[in-house]
Amino acid sequence: MTSVKEQEDIRKLMVFLQEWDSARKVARSCILDNFIKSYDGKTEPELELEFSQGASLFLARLTAWLRMTYTYSTCLNKLLKSIGIFLSAASGHRYLTEFLEIGGVVILLEILGLNHLKEGDKRESVKLLQLIADAGRKHKELICESYGVQSLAEFLATSNSAEAQEDVQVLLESLGRDNPKYQNQVYKGLVAVLPCASARAQQLALQTLGVMQDVVGKAPSSLVEPVLGVLSSVHPEVQHEAIELLKALMAHEVRPALLKGLVALLTPPRKKAFTCCDDTTEDPTALCLREPMLLYIQQAAAAKAIGVLAKESAEVAEELIQLKVVPGLMVAVGNLAHAASQRHASVSLEYFVYTFPLVEECVKKALGDTLFQHFMDSPETWYTKMDPVQAEELISNIADIPRDIARMQSTEGL
């Protein structure tokens, strides 16, 4: 027999559940407010004690209301937070099971794709997905099997909330860890984010790719174009993460393609490098003839990356020389329209000149004694003394460099 106290507790639970069942939106919102305030951080035994061993009855009502209302945002944020109290409760695995049985993962992922919902609601959805992923490998697989990687990658690329994007990054990294069946899917999902318009999403995707690289091992050839593409970003933090990823990729089979691509970026087509503004344009921020375009930004970033990679590995440096990096760097140095290209290319060129005598001789021949001496005296600023005539001569004189280097290398081999 139940005690008088137990009977009273059960009666209170029934009254509470009846109150919820009969309540309309405003009243339910108040109930959720009180629940969040009173029960956040509670364990499963504590929740069961408070609900007279009937906490699952309230969770069932919450999930039922979620299924009916998530598409039009009825108290959605509070509802998700309330469900989160159950899913995060210590020893509350049964709550998680009950939520999954009603299709909770699919609902949470669908929330991410509903454009009319608030960013805060979607962030709460990501938090619940993280709680599910934290429960173990099988739960990570369930999220991935429900097209979760695609949904999360799309949300990362389109979200306007930096906090939500960071939560998605953590979740994707979690899905890519200790989840061998789907880790490649997560990796490819992150690669798909790179061409997006959000600099923050690009930065986070690059960071996570770097973390995952050792786990995944093989880097697909489809990675080359997107990684080189983000070098055109005007955001230094994106370029930094791209270069860090390039460093990690030098140990993988995509290295030749990446190095070849970097060298190619040093010589952008001149006609495409600038776009001329219409004199009648009313937009003061429109790109004008003298403003550097993304191709020049990409050129400067490539020149910087080449220097970083060459200094990391003598073998990589030699491969770059074979790919005609020296004339490419000199083209960038001669780009009077973009000082950043000149600066980064000059610093990288300095390394090759000091490290490889054959490069020094070829560069000296191309620059001439006076300009070469300026270069040797101050590699970081000498290009500021270069006039248009010298720049044109520099670019025209580099044609013989590959042939000179090849001749010298063959002579050294004798």
UniProtKB/TrEMBL annotation:
InterPro entries per the UniProt record, alphabetical: ARM-like, ARM-type_fold, DUF5578
Protein name (record): ARMD1 protein
Native species: Corythaixoides concolor (Grey go-away-bird)
Origin organism lineage: Eukaryota, Metazoa, Chordata, Craniata, Vertebrata
Gene expressing this chain: Armh1
